[in-house]
């Protein structure tokens, strides 16, 4: 095995949320030395794609690179959902949730709802130093999402903790399966109530939905909810946290964004590229193919390093520099093609409103004296802490 393969496996062995601050040096070597890295193993083996063009092509071609790889990973604890489906089956199920997360569903009073939640959380900040991960970025996205789903707000903390634990299915399966069972216990009674007394929330929509003439069963609805809570909260959680990390690290950029709120979207898109929240995606090759001169057999597992593709110097000029003036139209952080994230606009809306609320309600944010903030993780990346001292709060 090559040195770069050994180093990559060492990173992956630390788990999806492991204490990995800089995977990018290894990724750069992969792109140069082994852009389609073969790692011998069980079955047809494991292959890792790290260059932008190759990852992009694989994301677009779900006929060749199937999502069914997730059936051996995330779906073990979430249940059968969109993330392991392809083709017509995926399209039928996607149509159940996309309308509720589409731009037209985010108009009207919804932005005001998100803004109200953000300000309520800021109002609850303790005096003195505050860890924005614990006090804001962890709770804000899920508080918003439970409103969309019609879930009880008392369950926010438990649901978010379970959603985070679901992602540990490979690193800590006992913890992941315990989280799956806990979410089922929390959600099944809610589904039953929504069937009996439906409202205009997403759970009521799922409870009444039919696929191929058959109504979704309770377990299928719960599986959808596990996925939606995880995806809906986790992506925004890391995106918002990483954007705040950048602003704390660069006071001049923070001052610019405070003065020019129209640049917040540019900040968020560059954050998505620079620190992709979901940085590794699994796929399965449905037939034999060849990439970068490497033969990939049918049935092989393929890891798409979206985080590496987002720093590929073949696509991005000076990719290790954070630059909000960059053109990020082809960022892969929300996927591509048929599997493009259905909640991408919702995530961006939440993150933008959350940042605006913090900037509106605080003076210049700075790390508390003697503290530090790090972005960590492999498959899921975001700051572990954002300890700040708030001089004053409006």
Give a concise summary:
With 394 residues, this protein is of the alpha+beta class.
Helices and strands in order, then pairings?
Elements: H1 3-12, H2 24-33, E1 36-39, E2 46-49, H3 52-60, E3 65-66, H4 75-78, H5 87-101, H6 110-123, E4 129-131, H7 132-137, H8 140-149, H9 156-166, H10 173-196, H11 202-208, E5 210-211, E6 214-215, H12 218-249, H13 251-259, H14 264-274, E7 280-285, E8 289-291, E9 294-296, E10 301-305, H15 306-309, H16 344-361, E11 366-367, E12 375-376, E13 382-383, E14 387-389
Parallel strand pairs: 2-10
Antiparallel strand pairs: 1-2, 3-7, 4-14, 5-6, 7-10, 8-9, 11-14, 12-13
Helix pairs in contact: 1-2, 6-16, 8-12, 9-10, 9-12, 10-11, 10-12, 12-13, 12-14, 12-16
Written account of the structure:
The chain has 394 residues and is an alpha+beta fold. 49% of the residues lie in helices and 11% in strands. The chain is built from 16 helices and 14 strands. It has a 5-stranded mixed beta sheet, sandwiched between helices. It has a 3-stranded antiparallel beta sheet with strand order 4-14-11. Strands 5-6 form a two-stranded antiparallel ribbon. Helix 12 crosses helix 13. The longest helix has 32 residues. The chain is globular. The termini are far apart.
């Amino acid at each position: 095995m090559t040195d770069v393969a050994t180093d990559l496996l060492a990173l992956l062995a630390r788990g999806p949320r492991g204490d990995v601050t800089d995977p990018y040096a290894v990724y750069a070597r992969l792109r140069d030395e082994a852009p389609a890295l073969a790692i011998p193993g069980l079955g047809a083996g494991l292959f890792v794609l790290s260059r932008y063009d190759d990852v992009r092509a694989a994301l677009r071609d779900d006929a060749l690179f199937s999502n069914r790889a997730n059936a051996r990973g995330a779906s073990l604890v979430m249940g059968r959902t969109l993330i392991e489906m392809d083709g017509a089956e995926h399209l039928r199920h996607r149509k159940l949730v996309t309308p509720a997360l589409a731009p037209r569903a985010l108009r009207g009073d919804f932005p005001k709802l998100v803004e109200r939640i953000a300000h309520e959380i800021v109002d609850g900040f303790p005096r003195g130093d505050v860890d924005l991960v614990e006090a804001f970025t962890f709770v804000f996205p899920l508080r918003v999402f439970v409103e969309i789903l019609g879930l009880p707000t008392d369950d926010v903390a438990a649901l978010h903790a379970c959603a985070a634990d679901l992602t540990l299915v490979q690193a800590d399966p006992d913890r992941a399966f315990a989280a799956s069972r806990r979410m089922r216990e929390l959600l099944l009674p809610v589904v039953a109530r929504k069937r009996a007394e439906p409202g205009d929330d997403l759970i009521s929509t799922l409870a009444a939905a039919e696929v191929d003439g058959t109504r979704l069963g309770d377990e299928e609805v719960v599986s959808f909810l596990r996925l939606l809570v995880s995806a809906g909260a986790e992506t925004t959680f890391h995106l918002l946290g990483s954007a705040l990390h950048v602003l704390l690290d660069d006071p001049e950029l923070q001052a610019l964004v405070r003065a020019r709120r129209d640049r917040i979207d540019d900040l968020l898109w560059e954050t998505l590229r620079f620190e992709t929240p979901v940085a590794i995606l699994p796929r399965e090759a449905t037939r034999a193919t060849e990439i970068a001169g490497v033969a990939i057999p049918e049935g092989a597992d393929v890891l798409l390093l979206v985080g590496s593709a987002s720093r590929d110097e073949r696509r991005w000029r000076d990719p290790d520099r954070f630059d909000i003036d960059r053109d990020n139209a082809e960022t892969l952080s929300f996927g591509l093609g048929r599997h493009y994230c259905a909640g991408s606009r919702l995530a961006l809306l939440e993150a933008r409103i959350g940042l605006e609320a913090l900037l509106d309600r605080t003076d210049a944010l700075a790390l508390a004296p003697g503290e530090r903030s790090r972005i960590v993780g492999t498959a899921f990346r975001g700051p572990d802490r954002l300890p700040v001292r708030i001089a004053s709060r409006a």
